[in-house]
């Protein structure tokens, strides 16, 4: 049983910028630190060893949490009150004690706090560091339970992928530029890289691929290989092994060979040489990540070689060094839109199933959790059930590419758990994804997980304080996928924001409600995230899913919606699962509602298990989800004074943004399907906004009407923009609402390429002003258009209004941004617009 001491609550601390993440070691007031040992013994260490780091970390943590300085020694001392940290081997030698480690897996550890001497012993040095972090995590949470246990990882591979480009930009990164690269080179100052390795180690991540899967060959120049050596040097004390993504055509584009055919001897030799050079600089390199023959990347298919032959090329080069090839299963071709049976979801199994058994033992096929691409809900990739003689790893995404780009709170562990816990029933036997990727189910030597993280130089790492729960949860689940999402979250909350129960309850509520809310307003019933797949992947743009070769289709028309993926009449995808699962998905009556439109093409009036029709479910879900997002603002505000001002204000800004953008999502999707189906909302809400005033119906001076495309990204299809890019516009109107107090929302568009200014007046008295500067503050992929990505809302609360008052908005354009306005809404308390 865990004992969390009830502690006095610390008065609010100084501003925090997020850099310390969950390793703050904030003071615990009112705790008697006599019980904490008074020295540390770190065994058998050199300064680059994780055991050395463990000693330093313990000293730092205890100083921070208890204000108690304790010394570090490097051999057995006299004191009985000691924290001993080291490997089992070093411990047995130093203490002449043949302490028996049971079958601990590599990186596992033993933690014993039951006696005066705290034992933290690792199966290896890395394990010792993990044990030290575990002990510190308990102390920092005020948990002084006496424990003695072994902990082993569920799987050996627990890596991150960073999609950093050599120029310092990050593909799908929302936390600023790279901490590794700049101007084509490895940065000089690797302080942040070292701090990142420390964060990763604290959640037991043991490898990081540092460059984009869409890899640039110039990573392999001698200067950059030396730079990789420097990154590895700062990773090593934390037990994080460096790995890199490769561009398959490098022998030709960088090496000037005439070919990159994986079976050509000159190509084999070239990769062998490069690999030797890399291991010279990075003797403990983890391995390579390869994206081949996908989305324009070169690969072995060019030479009629199989993907397995391509993977084994690298496997051979790495084998002498113990390195691993992570070979991505994200391979698909562009599709013919008029082919009813074409399906991108089929691609991975089509490409890889027949190669089962042909990959070398140090190849791991890295499989995205779902068959398409990190959507808000996908069924488990059936490829996990089709590779019985191949090592596999799951690929998750911490960076919220399709899930709000860190501008919407979405706690992802519950989504990941739906996949990890899913039982694929291979051979009618229990076959959960977590037991497949660990290697246990099919008796494979390797396996595990990789997550695309994409931290940047922003002090919050990911661009948002609350998004860091996802990185924390990823590490925890990679180690132990059977953990509970909420329990992981609560550890993270205590470590990040302290022990106040109201903080714990509030952030737990917001986070646990966040994925369902996002799913509800961005695309439910398995239709995927209804975003713009050809542009930024951020805001709503449902029609953009179809009519292109990418195959993220919805097949929506005026009567029906959904992809028919049945064997009997559709793309056959359901048949890629083992029989029990295939049968469940083949039949709409046994398909869960939340995946109905993934597997079936049905009428909008089709009845769900819930009893609702598909279209009414859409309308209701979009109202419910966006309604939940509104509540995150007052929930967060209830923590004012309990969290330092800096983090409080940063999060409040994002929650207010999310509340506004959730309404943009709700209306865009509802208006789109309302328009397409012609079926009214039984709740009378869709298309009916009694508290709105459209900008285009106001009296305009210097503003003109503008038809927005896609149409559903504007209320009533239209917005207004200034007549020129250099002259001010005003929009005014006389209000007819009853006297009272209102929250006034202004929906406008915030484009990249200009910072317009807006000011709102009531009877010529200013009631608020703001700048269109979100592109500098949010970090999401920006837009140059008036669309679902740039549409946003500013809310001015508690405005007293009388019938007959005159409202005026003055917009000052800047750059290419013509101070665009969509509508104003006056919300009396409790009204839903
Ligand atoms: C997505 C993403 C790309 C990325 C690709 C991949 O399609 O949008 O930016 O390169 O996945 O995983 O390779």
UniProtKB/TrEMBL annotation:
Gene3D superfamilies on file: Alpha-glucuronidase, C-terminal domain (3.90.1330.10), Chitobiase/beta-hexosaminidase domain 2-like (3.30.379.10), Glycosidases (3.20.20.80)
Any keyword Hydrolase? Answer: yes
Q: Where in the cell is it found?
A: Secreted
The signal peptide stretch is 1-15
- In this chain the Glycosyl hydrolase family 67 catalytic domain maps to 142-461
Under the heading InterPro entries, the entry gives: A-glucoronidase_C_sf, GH, Glyco_hydro_67_aGlcAse, Glyco_hydro_67_aGlcAse_N, Glyco_hydro_67_C, Glyco_hydro_67_cat, Hex-like_dom2
- Per UniProt, which keywords does this protein have? Carbohydrate metabolism, Glycosidase, Hydrolase, Polysaccharide degradation, Signal, Xylan degradation
Q: Which Pfam families match?
A: Glyco_hydro_67C (PF07477), Glyco_hydro_67M (PF07488), Glyco_hydro_67N (PF03648)
- Annotated TM spans: none
What this chain does, per the record?
Answer: Alpha-glucuronidase involved in the hydrolysis of xylan, a major structural heterogeneous polysaccharide found in plant biomass representing the second most abundant polysaccharide in the biosphere, after cellulose. Releases 4-O-methylglucuronic acid from xylan.
- Under what name is this protein listed? Alpha-glucuronidase
| Name of the gene this protein is made from | aguA
